[in-house]
Amino acid sequence: MLAVILLILQRQKLTAVFGSLPPQQTVNASQTVTPDLGRHYQLNYEQWLDVLKQEAKAATEKNPEHLSILAGDSISLWFPTELLPENRYWLNQAISGENSTGLLKRLEIFDSTKPEIIFVMIGINDLIRGDSDEVILENQRQIIKYLRKAHPTAQIVVQSILPHGAEEATWEGRDKLLLLPNSRIRQLNQQLQRIAARRGAKYLDLYSLFTNQQGNLRPELSTDGLHLSPAGYLVWRTALQIYTQSGT
């Protein structure tokens, strides 16, 4: 139990933890999103699952109004707490390196919560490791199906897969990104949009907000051509604000 508590405390330093939102803070592009916590604090996948279960349990017990869930990979994981839209409670259920298969298998973790909206962004890690579009799309269908059944009153929002920085990327897996055309991601997003419509989910187009004239991830919105900078999260925040305030 002590180990789980320590992991939860660590999670509070890493990402948006369920609970009251902090005062709004100004973030500029020179600030670092991902804190350097050292090797001692690196969590493995099973440890992350334990943290997510405890946070979901806390959300279930408190049962707040306007609960919103972020489900996805490291891009969602590192969403700065202070940049998440206000007047909502946020439960971050993201894990670094996650793919669509992994997310589908762990959706049950937050079954007992009562979210108003569930935002899903997943797929870039599938593409990087070489999974086919068919696998990704089928997993997305199953994710939507599962969430609609487990949370019948919630809005399920499929967010587009973001582009990468191509030749300008500095991420350690740059060679893998160069094998993945952003045109393929754009086409995959078009199919995701159709799937969302057919399955009773919403679709939030973030892709077009993050691309430059070459169709790549805008350098000022990223730290390494894959992950987002504070400026990138500000763009995402604005999209979430518009969505949640519009009552779509």
Automatic annotation (TrEMBL):
Ranges where the SGNH hydrolase-type esterase domain occurs: 80-233
Pfam family of the protein (one): Lipase_GDSL_2
Gene3D superfamilies, A to Z: SGNH hydrolase
InterPro entries, A to Z: Ester_Hydrolysis_Enzymes (IPR051532), SGNH_hydro (IPR013830), SGNH_hydro_sf (IPR036514)
MF term (GO), any: phosphatidylcholine lysophospholipase activity
Top-rank taxon, per record: Bacteria
SUPFAM superfamilies: SGNH hydrolase
Matching PANTHER family: SGNH HYDROLASE-TYPE ESTERASE DOMAIN-CONTAINING PROTEIN (PTHR30383:SF5), THIOESTERASE 1/PROTEASE 1/LYSOPHOSPHOLIPASE L1 (PTHR30383)
Protein name: GDSL family lipase
Species this protein is from: Nostoc cycadae WK-1
